[in-house]
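User: Last request for today: this protein with gibberellin A4, please.
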Amino acid sequence: MVVQSTLTHCSSIKTCNKHATDFTSIPVISLEDPESKSLMVKACEEYGFFKVVNHRVPMEFITRLESEALGFFNLPQFEKDKAGPPDPFGYGSKRIGSNGDVGWIEYLLLNTNPQVPSLKTLTVFQENPEFFRSAVNDYIQAVKTMAYEVLELIADGLKIEPRDALSKLLRDENSDSCFRLNHYPSCPELEALSGRNLVGFGEHTDPQIISVLRSNNTSGLQICLKDGTWVSVPPDETSFFINVGDALQVMTNGRLRSVKHRVLANTQNSRVSMIYFGGPPLSEKIVPLTSLMGRQEESLYKEFTWSEYKTSAYKSRLGDYRLGLFEKT
Ligand code: GA4
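Assistant: Here's the final one, the structure of the complex with gibberellin A4:
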């Protein structure tokens, strides 16, 4: 269903059925747990998704970045627009990607190289761009460290050798990773759409290897289970959520699954999320890791580089099944 009259200012934003049960059996994994590696593999096989606690990312980095992000999103529209367009990096509002997808969202897309964030984004922070720059850099640094550890534990759990076979792709100075600050404004008019919700960010899988998400205490995130049911992920502002991306699905020859997810707008509260998308260098071949393949096992996918996959992904619509083009027939 597409909203037409009630919310005239967002006429092409989709709605979907409000009812989804809470994901109560979400795997919660502590980085201090000696069993974490096998728990992670199990969670990635079953859901492509899990929650990380005892992650060692200082809460201070998280709250500082959240307040800087809100400072930005609370600026007048014309100021925020100076940091646009979002392609390849910058501010975006409602439009997601460049193929006609829209959502109830505004966001900043940033590069994760040392020069983050981009100059045009920083100029909007006239008072003190340094505060924003250092909040982003401290946060990304800490979250990257956690992402490397998670990937090493997953590699251990899968008996991949060497154990840095996955994490080294993110550690690489040419790693093609990005970072996203999302703001989903509250939408009180939603009450008028009885039984339905505005879609903040439509259903999709992440193309990269792994995504690390943190949000404030506002609900909205849903994931799709293997049987096609959507479940709501209860928010937890002190923890991180890990998504398996398409590239990791291919590198494990389908053993780990990239998780379909979406975000719904909230009637009462606005949602702020921050996501690190860990991708490999553009020239990297995305193929199943040899140490994972059985003797007779064949790759389910054609050979491609991350650059080829990314180009194809960025030409697709958000909800498309992007790996389809790369599956062997
Ligand atoms: C999904 C994951 C990341 O947010 C993102 C998104 C990108 C964008 O917002 O520009 C894409 C989307 C994401 C997948 C398909 C293409 C590209 C929008 C879109 C329609 C930054 C990414 O890398 O891929």
